[in-house]
Amino acid sequence: MSDQQKLSNRTLWVVALRALVLQASWSFGRMQNLGFLFAVLPALRRMYQGQELQNVCRRNLAYFNSNPVLAFPIIGASLRLEEKKSCGADLVMEVEEFKSALAGPCAAMGDSFFWATLRPLAAITGVWLAFAGYWWAVPVFLVLYNVPSIGLRFYGFMLGYQRDYKIVDNLQRWRLSDLAYRLRFILVVVLGGFSAWVAFSGIENLHQSTMWGWLSVPGVVIAGNFLRRGLSSLVMLIGLVILLWIGLHICTSLRF
Amino acid sequence: MPDYPYLMAFTASLIAGLDRTAVFQLMISRPIVAAPMTGCLLGDAATGLLIGALLELLWLGRIPVGASVPPDDTQVAIGCTCLAITQYPGAPIPLAAFSILCLLVTLPFGKVGEFFDRVARRLNSRLWMRADHAIEQGRYSCLTWLHLQGACHFGLASIATFSVILLGGLVSLRLLVPLLSSDLVAMFPWLRLAVPLIGVSACLCTVNFRPSIWVYSSSFLVVYGLLQIFG
Amino acid sequence: MSIVLARVDNRLIHGQVLEAWIPTTKADCIVVANNDLADADMRKRLMVAAVPRGIQVIIESVENSARFVLAPDNSTRRVMVLFASPDDALQAYVMGLHFSQLNLGNLHRPEGVHQLGCTVTLDHADINSLTELENRGVEINLQCVPSDRQREWRSMINNK
Prior knowledge:
The complex is a heterotrimer of chains A (256), B (231) and C (160).
Chain A (H helix, E strand, L loop, with lengths): L8 H10 L14 H15 L2 H10 L11 H16 L8 H37 L5 H27 L3 H8 L1 H30 L10 H13 L4 H23 L1
Helix pairs in contact in A: 1-2, 2-4, 4-5, 4-6, 5-6, 5-8
Chain B lengths: L4 H16 L10 H11 L3 H14 L14 H14 L8 H12 L3 H27 L4 H66 L5 H19 L1
Helix pairs in contact in B: 1-2, 1-4, 1-7, 2-3, 2-4, 3-4, 3-5, 3-7, 4-5, 4-7, 5-7, 6-7
Chain C lengths: L1 E8 L5 H11 L3 E5 L7 H10 L5 E5 L1 H9 L7 E6 L2 H9 L6 E6 L7 E3 L3 E3 L1 H12 L3 E4 L8 E2 H7 L1
Parallel strand pairs in C: 1-4, 1-5, 2-3, 2-4, 5-8
Antiparallel strand pairs in C: 6-7, 8-9
Helix pairs in contact in C: 3-4, 4-5
């Protein structure tokens, strides 16, 4: 690394660990701004003093919102830029501008990969194991989600710090959105397998012919249509309970 | 069951509630983890696991994108597990069927979580304004406390949500148990079949994958066919 | 051409747009109409990288965006148009990019005077542009994600 490095490895670790609570003061309006400042503060205090520190802190209190995982490369990279700036280097793009330029796309990539793909995939795997009665469903879920997420947090932070502006190339090369799309194929396959298993074992429990299970595909599609039109799954569930209750009462009264 | 079951449940509620937005996001806040964890603390992990799995499925499709706040599935999971274990009236109702009843009465209170979460996020707006003042006066160590105060707001919001779910759940259970207890046994296998399928269909709706219906159906047909041949 | 969604969102392409709006609107093309972005190479590259393959992303100035959407080649596409401010939306409308509804998603103005819901603050210029759009027959509403309730903007302003 260049001779412009002012920050010790220890400070970098402190910043990375503080970034884990990035969202503690999430607010409407400026979202993660205080969290960002909180994370980089120990480093800023090593770089600046007095009035300069005041200005740089103010700057870092600007609107910021990203995905909690992909915020790490942004924090790493902007830390390196602050450091260069404090050493008097000319920056091609101001730190502020850089931060806000990265925040939106990183939020998009992170949300679609971690929230909308990896988490449901890990969860459905865990749920399947849980339904099959294995207690280790819980650790499996936690490992499936956390290994990529914690790994990418620390790796991204380090890489961001090393590559500053060029982190954009890495982010672009990872193509997380495309990876997410491919993983969603697996997610849908697992959903299909899980439904088949649930339908089969559920119908065996009811002592009915397993041929009825084939009806669950149209059932799921019809339910999906209602849900898409804005009916909440809660209302659907309560409706189902009422229908079952009525059905059971009719059955028993017919029998006697 | 431990001596202070509610105290244990409140601890679980606080830990999981913080993980949800404020701290780490290790996914301890997901129902599939939060409910068995509560179950473990209250001495019945298996009930927690069943509740956690069912709730996880129902909320599989909800994504916390940007500023939109989803219902508080974490506190529903913990509240439901706590009620199922502490309020279980014993035979002839099987514990699993009673858990489903608890699930039905706590689910509607998830919305309350949205309200408290919004309050916490509004309160947090003051924090960065105060941080701005602190910077002006050069009190930098104050910033750390201001930031962590935000976590306290989220923690309090979780506890508040949990209390409402617990109280609401207790009252609804008193009303519904005499009414439904005899039918629950017969309804249980049907619900165990239907709830996962509703969850799957909710997830299929939100998943951003164009040919999802075709891939889903083929996967279902293959697995179901195999189960019929070999099962 | 069919515009499935016209949205004012100063964060442009982000999680809410990709994960919530694309699946519900089934859009296959996102047009970001923004004059500042058109020559900001880094932001443009990242935005394109954030969108999965199969969905086309066009980042152009307001004028070129309007021209792109109106081109006869693009008549079969389902387009989602994103603006960073109500003023851009008005400009595009004047240039012939007609949409019947305008969705207000996220808009943060440090010196905003009107707070509408949690995520939208408007200043006087925004109000003027939106009023102008409304006079031209555009329905303006607030909705962060499709699962939220859709609210009419006037009713929310009057409440304040």
